[in-house]
Amino acid sequence: MSDQSVRADAAVSFDMKAGQFTLPTLVLRDLDTAALDEFLAQQVARLPAFFNQAPVAIDLSMLPSREQFDELPMIVGMLRGHGMIPLGVRGASEQQRKQALALELALMPNGRKVAVKPAQPAPHALPKCAEALIVDKPVRSGQRIYADAGDLIITAGVGSGAEVMAEGHIHAYGPLRGRAMAGVSGNIDARIFCRELGAELVSIAGRYRVSENLETRYRGRAVQISLNGDALKFEML
Amino acid sequence: MARIIVVTSGKGGVGKTTTSAAFAMGLAERGLKTVVIDFDVGLRNLDLIMGCERRVVFDFVNVINGDAKVGQALIKDKRNPNLFVLPASQTRDKDALTVEGVGRVLQELGKEFEYIVCDSPAGIERGATMAMYFADDAIVVSNPEVSSVRDSDRMIGILASKSRRAEQNQEGIREYLLVTRYSPERVERGEMLALEDVQEILSLDLIGVIPESPSVLNSSNAGVPVILDRDSSAGQAYSDMVSRYLGDELPHRFLDVEKKGLFGRLFGG
Q1: Which of A23, A125, A208, B180 has the fewest CB atoms found within 10 Å of its own CB?
Q2: In this prediction, what percent of chain B has a pLDDT beyond 70?
Q3: What are the pLDDT digits (tens) for A216-230?
Q4: For range B140-146, the mean pLDDT
Q5: Beta carbons within 10 angstroms of residue A79's beta carbon
Q6: Does A156 touch chain B (CB under 8 A)?
Q7: Is the C-alpha dihedral spanning B70, B76, B81, B83 positive or negative?
Q8: Among B9, B135, B140, B152, which Cα is nearest to A140's?
Q9: CA B56 – CA B43 distance, rounded (Å)
Q10: Dihedral angle, C-alpha B9, B14, B20, B25, nearest 10 °
Q11: Which pLDDT score is estimated for A1?
Q12: A208: number of Cβ within 10 Å
């Protein structure tokens, strides 16, 4: 009973499985906590539902100093205050790891080297052939579907009061009556494709428009929605 | 083990209790031993609709708490020996319901009865989730009206995720749509959602359409399940619905505007 022991058998009531999660990661470049607080408040205001109780990681690899820093407990508290749940750190030095341990933060595996650019910390580069989440049953009012690895394809209807979200594109082949949010972590290239537009709210990378402000000629029609600068662009399909 | 059916909707006042009473009586009339349970603890109505409000001694919560045996709380219907009612408590509220308690009572009832009809309260909180938790079948009642339809959609989503069957990864609850208070005249005038619109939004198997009818209020005043009013359109539609549930394929009636002849217009009806 060697590697067999981890797999569930009928008598055992639990399983250890490999889970895969995409985590929004806060990349720290300096320790200006006041600016950080303001920045977090802005992010949360843009996508409140996304950040509420969201697990996040803190990347320390871009900090100028490899020493321990007093601000870490404050930053953890700040993230929590904004509704997020910091799970762990990555890119930490030996001393910083000890700090993380004291705060009961996990050590996340080091990812690719983050390029230095004055951009928002949330990852927005999608792999070329992203994994799509396919949903073929109606999405009922009050349900939420989130495609965290790429595109979302829905072949049945999305009910009024339902929410569908994707890191990548959203393709809705049934009537789209609820909320549709594409590129939720900031992917400005994400689009929404639908066969029957009746959505209560559409959004791409946080720029949104409610149903009331939708032009009448697009209602009920096959439409493609994309982001043009800061404004949503609607085109007939 | 009995088949457990929940009659639910989300929205209040659409006809769940009316349907529970009529459906349970319909099953009993076909010789099937049936019990109908009121899950609306604190706001009980089923006993009034069934006409047994003056015979309530013990209730569902008494049985869950062990103050009484199931047999002491069940009220036998005076019109049909196959039909029993388990009333709700009026002095308690829905916090008195527990999964273990409800499960125990249902299990005990399951030994004696073939069908258990659970009359759900409105809403999506404890009372409603308790009523649906153990269900095998669900009758989702909806009026052809936008807020009712949206609430029903929400309820269907909850049925798919919060039932015991869903939690244990078993075959899901079999869901049926029942449209109530349908008025073909108002549909024709564009005041009411048409049947096709409701079906399109909810995507469920249609088990029946109950027309708007004065007989529903008359029956509830008299404490008689409306299915026993054989002349009324609502009563007949409920009868059709029971047949469909048991496997008969019947066309849906009372969908079209009735062309009244001279006598019809003189004498109403």
Answers
A1: A125
A2: 98
A3: 999 999 999 999 999
A4: 97
A5: 19
A6: yes
A7: negative
A8: B152
A9: 14
A10: -150
A11: 42
A12: 16
Q: Is A113's pLDDT higher than 70?
A: no
Work out the average pLDDT over B145-151. Answer: 95
Q: What is the pLDDT of residue A8?
A: 46
Helix (H, G, I), strand (E, B) or coil at B148: helix
In sequence order, the 6+-apart residues with CB closer than 8 A to the CB of A46 are: A206
Token pair of B187, please? 């549909």
Q: Provide the pLDDT for residue B130.
A: 96
Which range has the worst mean pLDDT, A67-81, A221-235, B201-215? A67-81
Query: What residues of chain B lie within 8 A of the CB of A157, using their CB?
Result: 201, 203
Mean residue pLDDT across chain B: 95
A·B CB contacts under 8 A: 34
Cβ contact B128:B8 at 8 Å: yes
Closest B-chain CA to A156: B203
Among residues of chain A, what percentage have pLDDT more than 70? 86
Query: Taking the alpha carbons of A46, A47, A53, A56 in that order, is the dihedral positive or negative?
Result: negative
Mapping DSSP to helix (H, G, I), strand (E, B) and coil, where does residue A180 land? strand
| B201 reaches A (C-beta below 8 A) | yes
Cα separation, A146 vs A38, in Å, equals 27
| Residue in chain A lying closest to B152 (CA) | A141
- Side-by-side strand order, sheet with A163-166: A144-147, A163-166, A179-182, A201-204, A207-210
Inter-residue contact A147 to A132 (CB < 8 Å): yes
Local structure of A181: helix, strand or coil: strand
Interchain pair A140, B157: CB under 8 A: yes
CA distances from A129 to A132, A149, A150, A165, B94 (A): 9, 10, 9, 18, 50
